[in-house]
């Protein structure tokens, strides 16, 4: 089973399918995209199939720089970030709630930075997603 609710490489998800699978979390999905568009214009949304293990995900980027990755699940979604050292430290110093701190502290480190992925299920999560995005973008 893929991380994404959409795992058929031959069938990119359509907006109506994403809305249906996310359910109430669709409002949060849209809020994140809208926030990024307002805060870091111009942004581009790009669906991509990351492989059988991951499935389809949405990359939100500013020019060539990926801001974050959204991976739809059933009733929730994951937000993924690749954070450099400075952004990673800023995110930790923002004193996130324990769940976010644990995700940050357990994030694997790669040559390009830390791979952070967090589940989003409720509106309160958006505050911390925005803070991590701000650290990533240096704002």
Q: How would you summarize the topology of this molecule?
A:
Elements: H1 15-22, H2 26-39, E1 43-49, E2 56-62, E3 65-72, E4 77-83, H3 85-93, H4 98-105, E5 109-110, E6 113-120, H5 124-137
Antiparallel strand pairs: 1-2, 2-3, 3-4, 4-6, 5-6
Q: If you had to describe this structure to a student in words, what would you say it looks like?
A:
This protein has 139 residues and is of the alpha+beta class. It has a single domain, classed as Aspartate Aminotransferase, domain 1 (Alpha-Beta Complex), CATH 3.90.1150. It is 38% helix and 28% strand. The protein has five helices and six strands, in the order ααββββααββα. A six-stranded antiparallel beta sheet has the order 1-2-3-4-6-5. A hairpin with a 6-residue loop joins β1 and β2 (56-62). α2 (26-39) packs parallel to α5 and α3 runs antiparallel to α5 (124-137). The longest helix is centred in the N-terminal third of the chain and has 14 residues, at 26-39. The model has no long low-confidence stretch (mean pLDDT 95).
CATH architecture: Alpha-Beta Complex
> What is the number of domains?
1
Strand order of the largest sheet: 1-2-3-4-6-5
The DSSP helix count reads 5
Name the overall outline: globular
Instruction: Say how many strands there are.
Output: 6
Helix content: 25-40%
Can you tell me the CATH class? Alpha Beta
Order of helices and strands: HHEEEEHHEEH
């Amino acid at each position: 089973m893929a991380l994404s609710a959409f795992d058929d490489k031959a069938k990119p998800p359509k907006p109506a399918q994403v809305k249906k699978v996310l359910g109430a979390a669709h409002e949060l999905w849209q809020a994140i995209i809208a926030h990024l568009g307002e805060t870091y214009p111009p942004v581009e949304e790009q669906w991509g199939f990351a492989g059988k293990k991951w499935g389809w995900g949405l990359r939100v980027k500013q020019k060539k720089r990926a801001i974050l990755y959204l991976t739809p699940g059933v009733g929730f979604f994951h937000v993924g970030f690749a954070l450099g050292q400075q952004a990673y430290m800023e995110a930790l110093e923002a004193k996130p709630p324990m769940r976010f701190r644990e995700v940050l502290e357990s994030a694997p480190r790669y040559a390009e930075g830390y791979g952070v992925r967090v589940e989003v299920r409720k509106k309160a999560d958006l505050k911390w997603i925005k803070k991590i995005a701000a650290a990533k973008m240096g704002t």
